[in-house]
Design brief:
The protein is globular. It has about 325 residues and is an alpha/beta fold. The chain contains eleven helices and 17 strands. Strands 3, 4, 5, 8, 9, 16 and 17 form a seven-stranded mixed beta sheet that branches. Helix 4 packs across helix 5 and helix 4 crosses helix 10. The structure holds NADP nicotinamide-adenine-dinucleotide phosphate and zinc ion. NADP nicotinamide-adenine-dinucleotide phosphate binds next to helix 1, helix 4 and helix 5.
Amino acid sequence: MPIHAMAAHAAKKPLEKFQYEPAPLGPHDVEIEITHCGICHSDLHLIDNDWGMSTYPLVPGHEIVGIVKAVGSEVAHLRKGMRVGVGWQRNSCQQCEFCQTGQENLCAKMGATCLGNYGGFATAIRTDSRFAFPIPDALASENAAPLLCGGATTYSPFRLYEVRPSMKVGVIGIGGLGHLGLQWARAWGCEVTALSTTPEKEQEAKRFGAHHFLNTRDAGMMKKAAGTFDFLLNTVFAPQDWGAWLDLLRPNGKLCVVGVPSEPITIPGFPLLLGQKSVVGSVIGSRHMIAEMLAFAARHGVKAQTETFPLDKANDALARLKANRARYRLVLTV
Ligand code: NAP
Ligand code: ZN
């Protein structure tokens, strides 16, 4: 049975209907009938070939939720009929130092769900079952799909960089990732600030858990907030003033970059070293972190605020995301 999908055939081109025959189901594989797929800004970066690594036809989509239709001979943890999710990573070597210490997201041989493979803007996917995660009953599929990438990417930094409840945390960029970042920070017990270029987002940001809202284009507000943050989670991809973020940090503060900046990060020396500040990165999440994140979301009611589009309207959804009009994660329904 062919899989029906939406694919880009060249950089920056609209998606078109596309179908393909999946590879045979391997012993560790699972076939998932997709019901929902979130649209991450990375999908837009891939379609536009912003990173110079896209191959076409390109079927985007790596925030997948669906129902298991078939499992390979070696699959023991999933059964037909289970509801599962798949994120950015589709496999790893399972042998390197990082795979063996539960950091598969750092494996040099990791495979990506929609880069070099056909992704989730589709009716189904065949992929490695070891990177498919049961979805807790408490989470609706529509709200859970964005957790598979956006949720994992914003949750992991709290664990990796040992954010504590006593800390003042800022989330920069209140989009798909950022609105989840606010919810984790609040559930973590932190004092939370939303840092945004869009003042209209203030009320919603506060509903997601922000105690404060900082318009980053307001020089007065930025000055007043100088030296007040322990941890800043930066989800923005646009060119930005990196020195300004360092100025917002207290001594020993950390700026964690998860958005993929379109230009090299330029850091002024004195603000970095005088306060012993750090600039760190984080990429998606390990399998263990994703499973933990899903359980945490179910327990604390963390969920993506979504707007849905049918799969064949993917181009309309992509245009909305590009215009920064998504509130807050667009999800395709199949
Ligand atoms: P998104 O929904 O488009 O949100 C990005 C936010 O950035 C926007 O909502 C906006 O927030 C802000 N922004 C947009 N244009 C801006 C501009 N010109 N100047 C300043 N701020 C601007 O995107 P997303 O899905 O959250 O993804 C964000 C980034 O994370 C992308 O680069 C994506 O590739 C990356 N990503 C990384 C990982 C990882 O593993 N590290 C995983 C997933 C995604 P305000 O309106 O509040 O300013
Ligand atoms: Zn993503």
